Task: structure prediction
Amino acid sequence: MNDPVLHISHAFQIYGTLLESRPHGGGHINDTYAAAFGQAGTRVRYIFQRINHRIFKNPPALMENIQRVTDETRRRLELAEIPDISRRSLRVIPATDGKAFHQDEEGGYWRCYPFIEGARTYDIIRDTRQAYEVARAFGEFQQLLAGMEGIRLHETIPDFHNTRARYERLRQVVEEDPHGRLSSVEAEWKFVCERQDMVDVLLDLNARGLIPERVTHNDTKLNNVMIDDTTETGVCVIDLDTVMPGLALYDFGDMVRTATSPAAEDETDLTKVRMQMPMFEALVRGYLTTAGEFLNETEKSHLVFSGKLIALEIGIRFLTDHLEGDVYFKIKRPAHNLDRCRTQLALVRSIEDQEKEMTDLVESMTK
Ligand code: ADP
Ligand code: GN1
Ligand code: MG
Result:
């Protein structure tokens, strides 16, 4: 059997026998497997992940971050006497040598978490309740980490949300056009160029001390929160590779990007892509219940902008990857990254069309 989990699961502190394992989830970056173990007559599942070492250059430092972050969220939940803590925060299962990861013979880095049962992730938003819950959960995650002591977390990907750097990289790739694909993306490149002024806004506000660096998740896609099957509440924030110093607005912006449109990220019918106001309202409401207590006025007044910016930023990244020959995001078909880019830019336009109403709404909810 060509199942990598078969070769590495023994290297983790897990009791019992491996019954089965299979690829799991649809993330663009890591390789994820769900594996079941027999433990004294009970079937218990775990998640195994091979960290994408090409993208995350220093997996031991990344796992040090995750260990600290999961310890801190658990400690805070315990202090607050929250029930069901083992489903509310990821827990790193140590390797047999005590490390937070195991390195296989090919140099691959593996980690293991308990499988959060009775919950699932969604790629497309279903209703306003989910939008509220996802935003509440990510806000709570930021809140739990706000007082974390010790040294600054490692930057697992430097300049991850540096939109100026993302724009400049695209410009460079456009100039080089290594795969001769530029002629088919003239419209997208023009769209981005026309919005170049946006890329410095949050960076400037941060440089001027108006919005602070915080511990943020930085990849707050809808499908990075597990939603409980029964209660429909957001139980656990997952995908912690990019938890590092960042801006709260990057997190809110990625929620707007992924939880307001009824279309898939790679939808080819762009008429389906739109920012839906009820979802946005639910996101703001959910986020403010937890993050409202620490956000400053400048952050609150840029909630709408952050959605537009992060949609543009990820659009820029998909376009860059398309021009570079699909070296970063996993693809399933030719021009997949271009399709993804187009949905992001369509979303930017939809936000622009509704910006005034969105801004009025946030004002009415924050005054
Ligand atoms: P990627 O970085 O590739 O997006 P994720 O960490 O988000 O990887 O995992 C991919 C998917 O696997 C998630 O969307 C989720 O559905 C599932 N998953 C991840 N961790 C767990 C877990 N501990 N319990 C249950 N499902 C999980
Ligand atoms: C990637 O790992 P995943 O699929 O949750 C990417 C995000 C992008 C997202 C676009 C480490 O997230 O930054 O916003 O795809 N993660 C990394 O869907 O680059
Ligand atoms: Mg993910």
User: Anything to note?
Assistant: The first strand starts at residue 17 and ends at 23. The mean pLDDT is 97. The radius of gyration is 20 Å.
